[in-house]
Design goal:
The protein has about 325 residues and is of the alpha+beta class. Helices cover about 40% and strands about 20% of the residues. It has helices at about 5-30, 65-75, 80-100, 115-120, 125-140, 170, 200-210, 220-225, 255-260, 295-300, 305-315, and strands spanning about 45-50, 60-65, 105-110, 145-150, 150, 155-160, 195-200, 230-235, 240-245, 250-255, 270, 275-285, 290, 320. Strands 2-1-3 form a three-stranded mixed beta sheet. A three-stranded antiparallel beta sheet has the order 5-4-14. Pfam families: SpoIID. InterPro entries: SpoIID/LytB (IPR013486), SpoIID/LytB_N (IPR013693).
Length: about 325
């Protein structure tokens, strides 16, 4: 065999070995992409508000998929089922599109986690696995949104209910959202941190609720202070959340009281806690309307798809994925 033939054979063998070594990587890139976190130059970008950015206007441009996945990671646990994450991705996307439809500057302000924040949260050893879960939830729901009567639906969600989700008609006094109705969620009673207990002095409550207490508190009542007899739950909605609460001569909503005291839920009961304190026991986490993430995750564990989960919590709406992103972003 001459020298030229030997060199050609050597080159062929070397090329074969290189292909053999790189073949697994080539297949992986072909199937999954070079890196789920890599930025695709052909993807859409959005302007977002970033308080700590070096840009003078406080804005930054990031990939739409990364932004939506970052919001998802900020709102739902990495341990949730894939179908739960997909359902949540659809809810978030619908909310954002609804806001953008009426926005002139198209600047997004929702809180989100950057890749660095995700890595800090989960650690380098778990970052890639969890990040890819959120990215897949966004990509596998494509551009799906929830519609009602030809418009974007209102898609509230919460961590867990008190066993039932609430009716928007009862909470808001409006028939605009008939698809947000009472839903039985008994498994929510098993949720993490489902029951909370909090103790406040009457003086603390008076200070925290001062924005909506009636003027009587400026006179004799203010000097006398409150006692347990000054607190009365007057009514609850059909899901068991406090609708009206009396404090002295003031009647407020359960949600006002929850917000003032930063309680996890407005499904609560009141008991005396000594001479000058009151104990508040809450059930559930969040406002109680729309999708319960805890029950959604139990449904996903049982094999329900994200479409079935959304249909359960938002009955009467429809899923569509023919909305053009470029019209909004």
């Amino acid at each position: 065999m001459n020298r030229y033939a030997i060199e050609q054979k050597f080159k062929s063998v070397a090329a074969f070995l290189i292909i053999l070594i790189l073949l697994p990587y080539i297949i992986t890139v072909f199937v999954n992409g070079a890196d789920a976190g890599d930025v695709d130059s052909g993807d859409l970008y959005v302007k977002v508000k970033v308080p700590d950015t070096e840009e003078a206007d406080g804005l930054a441009e990031i990939r739409w998929t990364d932004y939506l996945a970052g919001i998802l990671a900020d709102e739902i646990s990495e341990e949730c089922e894939a179908e739960t994450m997909k359902a949540q991705a659809v809810l978030i996307r619908t909310q954002i599109y609804s806001k953008l439809e009426n926005s002139e500057d198209k600047i997004l302000t929702e809180s989100w986690l950057s890749r660095d924040e995700m890595e800090e949260k989960w650690g380098a050893e778990n970052y890639r696995e969890y990040h890819e879960k959120y990215i897949r939830a966004v990509e596998e729901t494509d551009d799906t949104v929830i519609m009602y009567n030809g418009a974007y639906a209102w898609t509230p969600f919460h961590q867990s209910s008190n066993g039932k989700t609430r009716s928007a008609a009862e909470v808001l006094g409006s028939e605009e959202y008939p698809y947000i109705a009472v839903r039985e969620c008994p498994l929510d009673k098993e949720a993490d941190d489902e029951i909370g207990t909090f103790s406040y002095s009457y003086t603390e409550i008076q200070k925290l609720c001062r924005d909506f207490l009636v003027a009587e508190e400026d006179g004799e009542k203010a000097a006398q202070g409150y006692g347990f007899k000054d607190f009365e739950i007057k009514s609850c909605d059909s899901a068991g959340y406090v609708k009206e609460l009396r404090i002295g001569n003031t009647v407020c909503t359960g949600d006002q009281f929850r917000d003032a005291l930063s309680l996890p839920s407005s499904a609560f009961s009141l008991t005396e806690d000594g001479e000058d304190r009151i104990k508040i026991t809450t059930t559930g986490k969040g406002h109680g309307m729309g999708m319960s993430i805890w029950t959604a995750d139990r449904m996903a564990e049982e094999g329900k798809t994200y479409e079935e989960i959304i249909a359960f919590f938002f009955e009467g709406t429809e899923l569509r994925n023919d909305i053009q992103e470029t019209e909004l972003l």
